[in-house]
Design goal:
Layout lengths: L1 H4 L3 H19 L25 H4 L6 H12 L2 E6 L3 E6 L2 H9 L5 E2 L2 H12 L8 H11 L5 H29 L3 E2 H17 L19 H16 L5 H8 L1 H26 L20 H13 L6 E5 L3 E3 L10 E3 L4 E4 L1 H4 L3 H4 L39 H15 L3 E5 L28 E6 L11
Parallel strand pairs: 2-8
Antiparallel strand pairs: 1-2, 3-5, 4-10, 5-8, 6-7, 9-10
Helix pairs in contact: 6-10, 8-9, 8-16, 10-12
Keywords: Heme, Iron, Membrane, Metal-binding, Monooxygenase, Oxidoreductase, Transmembrane, Transmembrane helix
GO biological process, one term: lipid metabolic process
Pfam family, one: p450
Length: 463
């Protein structure tokens, strides 16, 4: 004690910090502080106190690649510890994922860190950013969008306006020999469907002449900005400070403010237009006809299987749990402790050869058709793209109908191929890959040539 009494305050503080740091170093030699050791699960060896946080930094903009690296090296159940998530358990079995999703919001949640990010975008009142009673209220508020009446009264009407315009645009590109960015074209269709069917607003981002593709779309640009910046935050524990230095915080706030102002104006327009009559539909695909499109359904499910809307996800364990053993795959039960995060990638799980066979990575709609050519919906136990349990996606029927209406109204009349030329703005074809974002999107433009087929001649009068 006499020695301690002779030390000044700063020296004493340094001694205490050094002693405490040494104890923490001994207690957490290869994992993040506060996490428990998991010798029962394989995974990369971490550094003292910070776990695998430093190892994850080079992968921050390539999380799917990192997940693939871990799955390849350590198998379908492995673990790591990183800031700010703590203990993460990466799984690659649909049976385990089904178990987690059935217990969603009871034994699992998105967790405070993910909810904080989703609270920023798409917003605290969105189902994706809420839990418990708030989630039930948010889910109830959006339910009318996904009803048969909504599909029939609003979405079908919008399709009958939008698909002919899309055909006219493609015909214009074909006649002028102008390549287009297919990714941009598809995005404009999606935004136009939303604005026409749900907020009854007409935009000029999709018109019958290919020159409309050269116009900027502030709404699309704002959504892309919010999407990409939000995705970067998931594995950046200091995003609140780093974004200030990089300028991304200003870009994020500017984009979000633009959308909020747009929504405020739209509500006024909706009040004025809610009593307006909707013109009679033509013969674009109706929602009531979806079940007849067996091949279209198979192509849709195969597309979503290979490119799921949410390629990666996670849940926080609210209490201890055990993922069941899978003896048929020689996989033991996996212990999940309270506070652990369970990560998974629908993108990799849907391409898992142990689940989908040796052709898992190939585009094969035939896997969803029976011997008579009838569509067979894949088993929810292994097809997780629309979720399961209480968070099952209510928009499945909607996006399926949109896909069929667009594809059946366009594909019979046009051929598409990767372009060897450039668009009017100088874009050229590049091999597309998934961008690092919340939802599935491409990291490069998808520039294609458009050529009209002979079958289009009978429609030229309409166009």
């Amino acid at each position: 004690m006499s020695v301690l009494n002779t030390l000044d305050t700063w020296t004493l503080a340094l001694v205490v910090l050094t002693f405490s740091g040494t104890l923490l170093y001994i207690a957490y030699p290869d994992r993040l502080v506060t996490t428990n050791a998991r010798p029962d699960l394989p995974g990369p060896k971490g550094h003292p106190l910070v776990g695998n946080s430093l190892q994850a930094i080079p992968w921050q903009t390539r999380i799917l690649d990192w997940f693939n690296h871990l799955l390849s090296d350590y198998g379908p159940a492995c673990t790591f510890t990183i800031l700010p998530w703590g203990r993460g358990i990466l799984i690659n079995r649909p049976e385990w994922l089904a178990h987690i999703k059935q217990a969603d919001m009871k034994m699992y949640s998105r967790g405070p860190y993910a909810n904080k990010i989703f609270h920023e975008f798409p917003g605290g009142r969105a189902p994706v950013a809420s839990e418990g009673a708030q989630w039930r209220l948010a889910r109830k508020s959006i339910y009318p969008i996904f009803t048969v009446r909504s599909f029939t009264d609003h979405v079908s009407h919008a399709m009958n306006e939008i698909v002919p315009i899309a055909r006219a645009l493609l015909l214009s590109a074909s006649k002028k020999g102008v390549p287009i960015d297919w990714s941009d074209f598809a995005g404009r269709i999606a935004i136009t469907i939303f604005t026409r069917s749900h907020i009854n607003e007409k935009t000029n981002i999709l018109e019958g002449d290919v020159s409309c593709l050269d116009r900027d779309d502030p709404l699309r640009d704002a959504l892309v900005t919010l999407n990409q910046i939000s995705a970067k935050r998931l594995f950046n524990p200091v995003w609140q400070w780093s974004e200030i230095l990089s300028g991304e915080r200003w870009r994020f706030n500017h984009a979000r403010s633009f959308i909020r102002r747009r929504v405020e104006d739209i509500w006024v327009d909706r009040l004025r237009e809610e009593a307006m009559a909707i013109r009679d539909p033509t013969r674009e695909a109706e929602y009531s006809e979806v079940a007849r499109y067996h091949v279209h359904l198979a192509v849709f499910y195969e597309t979503v299987r290979l490119w799921p809307g949410l390629p990666k996800n996670a849940r926080l364990a609210l209490q201890d749990d055990i993922l069941p053993a899978l003896p048929e795959h020689n996989l033991p039960a996996v212990k999940v402790e309270k506070g652990d995060y369970v990560f998974w990638s629908d993108y990799h799980m849907m391409r898992n050869e142990d689940v989908w066979g040796p052709t898992a990575h190939l585009f094969d709609p035939g896997r969803h058709l029976d011997a008579e050519g009838h569509f067979v919906k894949p088993s929810p136990a292994k097809f997780n793209c629309f979720g399961a349990g209480p968070r099952f996606c209510p928009g499945q029927q909607l996006v399926m109908y949109e896909f069929i209406a667009c594809l059946s109204g366009i594909l019979p009349y046009f051929d598409f191929a990767p372009s060897k030329g450039a668009t009017a703005s100088g874009l050229i074809y590049q091999k597309p890959e998934l961008a690092e974002s919340f939802t599935a999107s491409l990291n490069v433009p998808l520039v294609v040539d458009v050529r009209a087929r002979d079958t289009l001649e009978v429609l030229e009068g309409r166009l």
